[in-house]
Amino acid sequence: xEILIIGAGSWGTTLAFLLGQKGYNIRIWSxxxxxxxxxxxxxxxxxxxxxxxxxxxxxAFGDQEIxxxxxxxxxxxNIVIFAVPSEYLRQVxxxxxxxxxxxxxxxxxxxxxxxxxxxGTNLRMSQVLSEILPEKLKNKIAVLSGPNISxxxxxxxxxxxxxxxxxxxxxxxxxxxxxxxxxxxYTNDDMTGVEICGAFKNVIAIAAGISDGLGFGSNTxxxxxxxxxxELKKFGMEFGSKASTFSGAAGMGDLITTCIxxxxxNRTVGERIAKGEKLKDIxxxxxxxxxxxxxxxxxxxxxxxxxxDLPITExxxxxxxxxxxxxxxxQNLMTRKFKSED
Length: 342
Fold this sequence. Notes:
The chain is α/β, with parallel strands linked by helices. It folds into two domains: about 1-190, NAD(P)-binding Rossmann-like Domain (Rossmann fold, 3-Layer(aba) Sandwich), CATH 3.40.50; about 195-335, N-(1-d-carboxylethyl)-l-norvaline Dehydrogenase, domain 2 (Orthogonal Bundle), CATH 1.10.1040. The chain has helices spanning about 10-20, 35-40, 45-50, 70-75, 90-95, 95-100, 125-130, 150-155, 170-180, 190-215, 220-235, 250-260, 265-275, 280-285, 290-305, 310-320, 325-335, and strands at about 1-5, 25-30, 60, 80, 110, 140-145, 160-165, 185-190.
């Protein structure tokens, strides 16, 4: 098995570690030359995964090698995994367009692991890839999503995930490739629902972080997760998603993890906002991307256009982009008109 991973952040490197330990040969692209050198020389990615020792079957390359070293070996790849933040997926996939055209018949699957909605186009990540990829790869797209905090998977703590594709054969193939004794992968043919869950849960995670930053307790967090899941489902069903997806690993599972984990970047953004920091200062200080910041804007704008009532999402949007007061926003949510639970 030969696998190309495009993106050497924490999740891309963790997947390389997981797959490399299965004996697969992994080539991983990094936008940062120093990260590529660290992987090749020390078998570590100290910037993103600290002292994690990577298998010898993993090697890295940078932009200068796209048309040389990696390009000469691309005919060997069975799977391509895009592991770059959602806001950069179009740019990065476009830069690899010619790179992939040469060998599209030899690639069995293209997997995206980023979670977000593209600002401006309101496209899901699989839709972005479908616009960029060679024609022969467009029916081979899949997405991986679930409660997958990379630091826990690096420690081989038990976790589940979901691989979704419109092509059931592709999903079953990837299920076998990705699964290990500590990483159990389920298949799902609702790619739309899985992607919406992965993107939207980050919005609710920011809200959960705001709750933490304001000093609220477990009742508040549980309330946010519960009502957040309701918003997520309401939004997703508008696009034809299956109801069962929202109660699965990619829905409820990922939502809970992202809202409660101290490692969640989106939850951390919310916590820091509630403590008085400015959004630009928070994002400027983070070398890893909190995808929920831009997804909040995209979901808010789409909901307004479709006339979907999403009060938590609207509150997060106003806090992030309109400087609304977090505590006052909570009070506004708690004093809304009474209604039945839907």
